[in-house]
Amino acid sequence: MAGESEYDYDLFVIGAGSGGVRAARMSSNYGARVAIAEGDRIGGTCVIRGCVPKKFMVYASEYAKAFETAPAYGWTIPEKPTFDLGAFLCSVQEEVSRLSGIYRRNLHNSGVEMMEERAVLEDAHTVRLTKSGKTVTADKILIAVGGRPNEPEIPGADLAMISDDVFHMTEVPKHMTIIGGGFIACEFAQVFRGLGADVCMIYRGDIVLRGFDDDVRTQVTETMKKTGIHLYTHATLDAIEEKDGRLVCTVNGGPTIETDSVLMAIGRHPWTDGLGLEAAGVELDENGAIKVDEYSRTSVDNIWAVGDVTDRLNLTPVAIREGAAFADTVFGDHEIAFNHENVAAAVFTQPPVGVVGLTEHDARQTMEVDIYRTVFRPMKNVLAGDESRTMMKLVVRRSDQVVVGCHIVGPDAPEIIQAVAIAVKAGLTKRQFDQTCAVHPTLAEELVTLREKYVPDEVHSLE
Q1: Same CATH topology for 9-149+270-330 and 157-266?
Q2: Which residues are 143's β-sheet partners?
Q3: Fewest C-beta in 10 Å: which of 73, 145, 223, 232?
Q4: pLDDT in 10s for each residue of the chain, 463 residues
């Protein structure tokens, strides 16, 4: 419980995204006097311009394939369906506003004071609100401002969109060019392909989703090509210019691509610019992220940071758990450090990806492993003549047969991986997987019926 203080607040939170809101609410419930500042709508990246609206777009784009395969299941589609992006995104923004309102209400009900303007640090205990110019003091400060999309320094970069802009488009472009090969680039490539755009991707690597398991990367890359996405690999964007109402992208110093819209999806960076961290003495790493220890404490004793601004594991549920651990530790009198190992993640490509634990490549760096892998056509696809395939893979530590990684590309992979993550987090063995009775007919049953070890012709890593 917080006692009398020389400061205006016991805790001031900068950033009202998922991590900051959770920390603020819990800290207030523990008895602290808490204020939170947010320069945009309350809810942060996930609710306002990330996970939530993006997932709605994924849902919308999936209908195209459903319409295409419906006749195989006896349905007649009388006319060619049409899609209204502007009307759809208006509905999405209504839902985003509703969720933002819930965040606001929850803060109010927890007794947190909200300040809807950007805040910057003046020193280790003083925060200035940039719109009103007001300064307030706090015993403890939590930074939870998240990240921002990267924007390249190339001629014509201002002609391109970033991911934030997608949710305010009014129509689907006939041709879209996406720069990048990470999860955001891949998700939007298949979203716009599903909505009817001709899509090309410019990517400096050879297969997409760097950092994921090589089999996942290969499966997603091949699937994207089969759906008609034009993938330019080992390619970099040099410039964009406007010509006759269209955009012209110069690639690798020579070839050009004419397009209607360009989306920059080349990663994100911690949003530490102009935050006053230097004045407060908060140290950053070489990538501009705030340095923190296992308890999210920065180089300044009374300042903490959680979420994407620390660039540890940039996932909304992780930010929430980090925020909760902060509140428990600082105001709840029970020290908790969130464990970042074996956190499941999903990529909402089509079909989607679900992963947890070590990739095969990373596992082989420290241990001998057994690999169990299968590639097959899901039951639903067979009747419709859909050649799309599912890939499932278990990475097993040979010495004790503990399952240290699971990687899935296929329908409902994110839903499946949430349950599998419990088993991987618990350190269950391959034998315990084998002893689990299958649910038939499902995709997930493959995870408990894999018996044959997979031995590739050549064990290698794709860079």
Answers
A1: yes
A2: 14, 305
A3: 73
A4: 444 679 999 999 999 999 999 999 999 999 999 999 999 999 999 999 999 999 999 999 999 999 999 999 999 998 889 999 999 999 999 999 999 999 999 999 999 999 999 999 999 999 999 999 999 999 999 999 999 999 999 999 999 999 999 999 999 999 999 999 999 999 999 999 999 999 999 999 999 999 999 999 999 999 999 999 999 999 999 999 999 999 999 999 778 999 999 999 999 999 999 999 999 999 999 999 999 999 999 999 999 999 999 999 999 999 999 999 999 999 998 999 999 999 999 999 999 999 999 999 999 999 999 999 999 999 999 999 999 999 999 999 999 999 999 999 999 999 999 999 999 999 999 999 999 999 999 999 999 999 999 987 654 443 3
CATH of 157-266, one of 3.40.30.10, 3.50.50.60, 3.30.1330.60, 2.60.200.20: 3.50.50.60
Q: Domain 9-149+270-330: what homologous superfamily?
A: FAD/NAD(P)-binding domain (3.50.50.60)
Which tokens sit at 77?
């589609």
Instruction: Tell me how long the chain is.
Output: 463
401 by Cβ neighbours in 10 Å (0-12 / 13-18 / 19+) ranks as middle
Give the pTM.
Answer: 0.95
Domain boundaries, the chain: 9-149+270-330, 157-266, 345-449
Give yes or no for a contact between 194 and 350, defined as CB atoms under 8 angstroms apart. Answer: yes
Fold classification of 345-449 is Enolase-like; domain 1 (3.30.390)
Q: How many Å apart are CA 374 and CA 364, to the nearest integer?
A: 20
Q: CA 270 to CA 33: how far, in whole Å?
A: 27
Contacts of 19 (CB under 8 A, 6+ apart): 44, 144, 306, 307, 319, 320, 322, 323
Catalytic residue among 168, 175, 440, 460: 440
Is 108 a known active-site residue? no
Token pair 């190992």: residue: 341
